[in-house]
Amino acid sequence: xxxxxxxxxxxxxxxxxxxxxxxxxxxxxxxxxxxxxxxxxxxxxxxxxxxxxxxxxxxxxxxxxxxxxxxxxxxxxxxxxxxxxxxxxxxxxxxxxxxxxxxxxxxxxxxxxxxxxxxxxxxxxxxxxxxxxxxxxxxxxxxxxxxxxxxxxxxxxxxxxxxxxxxxxxxxxxxxxxxxxxxxxxxxxxxxxxxxxxxxxxxxxxxxxxxxxxxxxxxxxxxxxxxxxxxxxxxxxxxxxxxxxxxxxxxxxxxxxxxxxxxxxxxxxxxxxxxxxxxxxxxxxxxxxxxxxxxxxxxxxxxxxxxxxxxxxxxxxxxxxxxxxxxxxxxxxxxxxxxxxxxxxxxxxxxxxxxxxxxxxxxxxxxxxxxxxxxxxxxxxxxxxxxxxxxxxxxxxxxxxxxxxxxxxxxxxxxxxxxxxx
Length: 422
Known about the structure:
Elements: H1 3-28, H2 37-63, H3 66-71, H4 74-97, H5 104-112, H6 118-129, H7 138-172, H8 189-202, H9 206-213, H10 231-254, H11 257-260, H12 263-276, H13 278-284, H14 292-302, H15 305-320, H16 328-355, H17 363-371, H18 380-388, H19 392-421
């Protein structure tokens, strides 16, 4: 296929996304005012708690089996690498541009998390349906492509709502609002963490600490294990145990299990369980399944995810048209990371994996792996900033330029990737 033909194939799905984004932007204009701040906040909650989990669970249950899961084992590794590489580049960008402390999480998250769900679910089927598609039969391409996109979306959702969510949350927290002083990616992160633990330990009730310290230690008759029974050695050992116990309590208190098991994470587990377990799959998935109405209902809710999140991004872009305190070099840096550095490094990673036989010979699979490095920032980042009501305007500016440039950059990279694997 010629470059122009591949370019047209890659352009169609991008145009679909831009049209829906433009509709969201129009609905947020003051004269229309349908997607105002309040509406977007409630809309985000619906996406987070209902639409995304339904889409993740139904897509995985329908497309992933034990065989396909084994064949696609490298995809989770590839996605993890995108987050690691993006985080490292984002951290470098934060240091170079001297980004304000409360925006560290936003910048790093924007560099690390790509739109691994929505765009792939739009791009892959659209590419497969084109007459000049380089990936062969349209039916097989669509089936395999949906499986690849669904798994990518599920794994990406887990990373975004655990890793990126917590980065933005912690960086948005003010030190005065928490006994544990959290600093993100600072030069003295180890020292700050220790200081934070010390401050948190002081918040424990004095009587609880004294109760532990004043408890008698029963050593028994034989005290030879303490070097002759010296009381100083015994006290040191007891004090050490007490300190370890206290620090362990602080670490447990700092873990947020509710966020670790976010709705999308639980949906991923449920979807994989249904898809992999043949008896459950036969009961729920398919027109002949006795409980197919449950799966169908979840799929209907999931169908609302992509247009909803795309509309939200379009509405959030309205703020990006207004002035923001975000520096120009920060905006430029995020675009360079996402559309130049990441795609180039992605070629090296996938080529390396292919040479060592880690990804097989399926050209569509390789195309999806490559595309995961060239996507714009995840739409969920806008949802996260809205949930915390922190950095919304800055996020809107980044997203505005991100998706404006993506219309050209993603088209060009998609064209080149299709030429590379075909």
